Amino acid sequence: MDGTDVQEQDAQNTPVNLDELDGAALMEAFLSDPSHGYKTLKYGDVLEGTIMHVDRDELLVDIGSKAEGIVPSKEYSSLTSEEKEQLEVGDTLLVFVVQAENNEGHPVVSIDRAKQEKSWRKLQEIHEANDIIEAEVVNYNKGGLLVNLDGVRGFVPASQVSEIRGGDESSKQADMARLIGTKLPLKVIEINRHRNRLILSERQAVQERRDAMKENLIQELTEGEVRTGTVSSICDFGAFVDIGGADGLVHLSELSWSRVRHPNELLKIGQEVQVYVLGINPNEKKIALSIKRTQAEPWSRVENSYEVGQLVKGTVTQLANFGAFARIEDGIEGLIHVSELADERIQHPKQVVQEGQDLILRIIRIDPQRRRMGLSLRRALDTPDADLIEVFGEGIIEERNELQQKLHDALEAEGLLGTRQDEPEGEEGDGDAVAEVNPDATEVDIKEAGEAQVAAFEERAARAEKAPAKRQSRSRKKTDEETVDTNQTFGDESGMSAMELAFAKLGADLLEEDEE
Fold first, then answer.
1. Mean of pLDDT over the chain
2. pLDDT band (50, 70, 90) for residue 82
3. CA atoms within 13 A on the CB side of 22
4. Which of 222, 313, 297 is nearest to 256 (CA)?
5. What is the pLDDT of residue 510?
6. In the chain, pLDDT over 70 holds for what percent of residues?
7. How many other C-beta atoms lie within 10 A of the C-beta of residue 294?
8. Whole-model pTM above 0.90?
9. Distances from the Cα of 39 to the Cαs of 46, 67, 89, 103, in angstroms?
10. CB neighbourhood size of 306 (10 A)
11. How far is 189 from 201, CA to CA, in rounded Å?
């Protein structure tokens, strides 16, 4: 190493005394210092800057370039008035390079676009992670809702919003206007930064949340517990009840102990109900619920509430060839056999009564174990006025008279007035006479007559079951029974109950015996 090299090395290692340098030498020393290198900017760079000056029309920020960056007022318009007032010299913020250098040599940067770029990157991460976000509805157009996600405008199609009803365009627009200012859970279903396209779905987000809640709920639920829920939807075969983030099905047969033709007879959407957990299927994520099982089974208290010979009111629920079924309270139905509708010989109940009609009836048979009850219309109408008033009050006489008049008119229209029922013929020596009720008899006499009728009724049924199938009517009875077995099964929402099925068989047997 020669002397020249040693002198150069000493010069490099010797600290520069800035006080001894003039202006030109100072600038040269500053520019030659590698720690003072400037950034090379290009469009799209997102940098952190420090506010150097705040003006009404623009901001000056230090972004590490040879000149301060300018933020025009239009490039921070997304800031609220409060946020703008809080901007101070020395604050740091992110900016997006819009122009590397303008005519004056300053870079042009944007706070709004920096926020957007940051939001786009965050949204892309959310989309890839399959996460759910929340956003406020800021406006709407013909096709759906517009939301703001930290500077990025997203679109939610109307078909992807559960709170927008179908129907005409005006109701659809009204629903969308009502949602402005509300926050919705959203799922990113399409994102394209280059095309500035962001499509979201509220429906998918809600469904995914409900699925997660349902899975947790299924793990917590136990069969037999009772929960409070809200009716969420109604269909022909039952109703769905939300029991805390998951919907369970209440089948039509589990709505009430009484026969229900359609759920809307008892329920409406939004109604709060108590439900009993019938079953849980974790694999299919299904929950079976019951409303009627939250109430006492009606037949369990029949023995304490009713007795043979008692007068009651009932509503005709269904007509069959052998008689009419009447509901005397929710879950309790009895059979009015055709022979107990009128003194005249009736071929079909529709000749004298109709579904939905209110009747005054007398109980002639009770079998709680088999859930059967025999009722009589003609015996109730023959009851003395004093007994009717004692049970139902003064207004019952007028009601009874109207019912008798309707019955008379129906019989007259059918040409049945004056026809009398034939006494059933028993086997020789049986003495199988039906006990008749004397209109002047006391309540005790009426009860005894009812009990005698029950005994005769059961004996005839027993003989009918033992009778050989020799006559042509047997074929007709068999066909009727097959029809009942096929179409009127217990629990089927369109069929009859087990009690009705049993009475159907018994009624057919009695009809056959009458023909004998």
1. 77
2. confident
3. 1
4. 297
5. 45
6. 73
7. 13
8. no
9. 12, 10, 22, 19
10. 18
11. 7
Taking alpha carbons only, the member of 160, 79, 162, 63 closest to residue 115 is 79
- Nearest in space to 231 (alpha carbons), one of 253, 255, 214, 208: 255
Question: CA triplet 446, 334, 511: central angle to 5 degrees?
Answer: 85
Sequence letter at residue 372: R
- Write the pLDDT tens digit of every residue in 273-315: 999 999 888 888 889 999 988 887 788 888 888 999 999 999 9
- Decide: helix, strand or coil at residue 287: strand
For residue 492, pLDDT over 70 is answered with no
What pLDDT digit, counting tens, does each position of 448-480 carry?
Answer: 544 555 455 455 544 544 444 444 455 444 444
CB 298 within 8 A of CB 329: yes
Chain-centroid distance of CA 313 in Å reads 35
Structure tokens at 210: 């409900």
User: Under a CB-based contact definition with an 8 Å cutoff, are residues 319 and 353 in contact?
Assistant: yes
pLDDT tens column, 257-267: 877 889 988 89
What does the pLDDT read at residue 459?
55
The residues, ordered by sequence, that sit 6+ positions from 146 with a Cβ below 8 Å of its Cβ are 137, 138, 139, 140, 153, 154, 155, 156
From residue 69, how far is each of 66, 107, 162, 247 by CA, in Å? 9, 5, 46, 57
* CA-wise closest residue to 330 among 255, 271, 252: 255
Question: For 285, left (φ over 0), alpha (ψ -120 to 50), or beta?
Answer: left
Give DSSP secondary structure letters for 23-69: HHHHHHHHHH-GGGPPPPP-TT-EEEEEEEEE-SSEEEEE-SSSS-E
Yes or no: say if 87 and 53 are a contact pair by the CB < 8 Å rule: no
Query: Which of 184, 211, 333 lies closest to 284, judged by CA?
Result: 211
First to last CA, the chain: 143
511: nearest Cα among 349, 350, 314: 349
Q: What is the pLDDT of residues 186-215, one digit of tens each?
A: 999 999 988 889 999 999 998 888 888 888
- Which 8-state DSSP code applies to residue 490? T
Angle at 253 between CA 252 and CA 259, to 5 degrees: 95
The whole-angstrom separation of Cα 90 and Cα 87 is 9
**Start-end of H helices in 73-196:** 81-85, 111-129, 169-178
Single-letter residue type at 509: D
- State percent of the chain over pLDDT 90: 26
Strands 132-140 and 144-149: antiparallel
C-alpha to C-alpha distance for 424 and 433, rounded to whole angstroms: 8
Nearest to 219 by CA among 283, 274, 272: 283
Are the C-beta atoms of residues 514 and 422 closer than 8 Å to each other?
Answer: yes
